[in-house]
Amino acid sequence: MISQKMKKMIATSSAIREMFEEGKRLAEIYGKENVFDFSLGNPSVKPPQSVNQSIKDIVDETSEIELHGYMNNSGFSSTRAAVAGYFNKRYGTTYGEKNVVMTVGAAGGLNVVLKSLLNEGDEVVVFCPYFGEYRNYIDNYGGKIVEVPANPPTFLPDLDVTEKLLTSKTKAVIVNSPNNPTGVVYDKEFLTGLVSTLDRAQKKWGNAIYLISDEPYREIVYGDAKVEFLPSLYDNTIVGYSYSKSLSLPGERIGYLLIPDTCTDFEELIASCNVATRILGFVNAPSLQQKLVERCVEETCDITPYSDNKNILTEGLKKLGFEYVNPQGAFYLFVKSPIEDDKEFCRIAKEYNLLLVPGSSFGCKGYVRIAYCVSKDTVVGSMTQFEKLAKRMNLI
Amino acid sequence: MISQKMKKMIATSSAIREMFEEGKRLAEIYGKENVFDFSLGNPSVKPPQSVNQSIKDIVDETSEIELHGYMNNSGFSSTRAAVAGYFNKRYGTTYGEKNVVMTVGAAGGLNVVLKSLLNEGDEVVVFCPYFGEYRNYIDNYGGKIVEVPANPPTFLPDLDVTEKLLTSKTKAVIVNSPNNPTGVVYDKEFLTGLVSTLDRAQKKWGNAIYLISDEPYREIVYGDAKVEFLPSLYDNTIVGYSYSKSLSLPGERIGYLLIPDTCTDFEELIASCNVATRILGFVNAPSLQQKLVERCVEETCDITPYSDNKNILTEGLKKLGFEYVNPQGAFYLFVKSPIEDDKEFCRIAKEYNLLLVPGSSFGCKGYVRIAYCVSKDTVVGSMTQFEKLAKRMNLI
After folding, report:
1. How many whole angstroms separate alpha carbon A340 and alpha carbon A8?
2. Which of A161, A199, B27, B317 could cross-link to B32 by cystine, CB 3.0-4.6 Å?
3. Do A146 and A28 share a domain, yes or no?
């Protein structure tokens, strides 16, 4: 009796989530320490100390009715002002609360903005490899996903190919830098090129093309990689953010949309996001978490553990003959599958209690994703298993 | 550039939310004490004392990674077990965690279940007057809303009329008792009749018809009114719940779906709700609030203030010549508009700083809703204004 669409969806459900559940099952059989679960982007780094203290302070200092009550569907004024202030301080912008819609994580925010923008059949361009959920989010509102093929080994999308895929029906382009699953950070040169491409397409078709920048990994960058501030490069940029990674709060579902005044039909777009937040059943981002963001807006987790994991993994896998993209941000390593069939490779890896996610889930066959936001013990412990896997794959 | 559908939606946006925003605007002009905002179901009663204490205890006693981290999309096992336990203790059922999906409030839960069930063009039957958002939730998934006309003065739906509206395309019927906006509690006699009607239709059409029971007001009943447990009457019942009212946590967005094993295609339905939770962008219900529910699952707010407000209002308005439905539950009073045009009546009421919501917003013209989940001062203070309004309307 369930919807035909959902029937299919269940059958091809998230490989990431499936691996996550599988990991819990294997841990019960073999013991947690003998299962190396690299499937899910569930941060292992604790939130900054101020998070739990702030929660207790907020509970003590805020009237209960205000703290747990309804507010404008876009969120508390004070929280939205704090988020705007973060941008103004960091990038010299002049945003106000009117530019910010608090959302149920980045996933909620993307749904809200796509609901706001898409007519049946409108096209949304994504760059392979991409977070597989984009496909579902776009489909939720009758949109059509248009994939720009992966461009290894840099994984910077080919702009000539991109330009050919922009049509009169293109409503938005989604970028995600630092990237899940590659860890690539788009540099200024690439982004300048992308923005020129979009500008030409806007002129050609006489339509606005929104650049939706999904930035949950904005604060997680290594070495001298720099995350560009897209609204300064392109007027029609909408930023989606989540505190899931930067404050290690993925279960709390708190994030925002930043919509600059420069966006085409700004007023209508903001009004639409406000209504979409309500009618999609979010109603508003969780109120206590909004208050928390207000207090911790400039905080981030210590990313040293991720950096350490990255170094151990990349050095270790290199010695074992694996090829991968060198990550500049996020906490994912995108490794080339030694055999063509990445799903089969994941199946073999699972025999060694190594849980990886096939690149096919990200629209990019022939690769697998390792989420290294795990404990150092897991990374170190996994190396003997990776060695066995490398031998099995005839890499060493 | 925004979606055509959303353009319309913004224009006809929620009258309730509009009044809520208007109330805040008027309060700035006339002072909060001189504006009588009966627009929104935002509880004025504080959460039970245990709520804030539990939040602090949870923060102190739970590992941060678990507390703020991802879990199964359906929620923490322990929370779902606690909710199942609540039902088992209260109704002698044998539910387990598999029967419970934690949701982002009841609004999130309804979206999840409708996404799971509806194919384009499937019909969902609602009884006028109904919570206006049902229309949007159904429309989100291509469903068609089918309204059973209001049946004053009891506001128990006419079952003969209902039966004629059940077709081969009927996928679900939504009931809401205690009812928003009438305060009516459906008695066993009516529900037995409804269930027989549904059973006949299921047999006639050879399809399951799910009865979605939206129960955010389950714990708010007055006198000897009794809220029936629908799963004991009808196998295909799905219960949607929110802690927004019973624990006064509307901003926190926490609730659940209860899906008994007796539901047709139970396994698939549960799997579908799990996936829908993920792909609609909820991902999971806020994790800290799940932990809170686990500790406070048997608690409810003190509803005496609502009962007192109801008594003051009903006695006062009766004397002034207003007609209304006597509420048995929830915290709404559904008052007959002294003139045919309920929107015009609300406009006139606003001249006296009385903020009411037109019945048209609930699919029932000629009535207005008073949300009396406000402070006693607001209710008492409003009486002189209601008196002026009654004079203006020539009631006294």
Report:
1. 26
2. B27
3. no
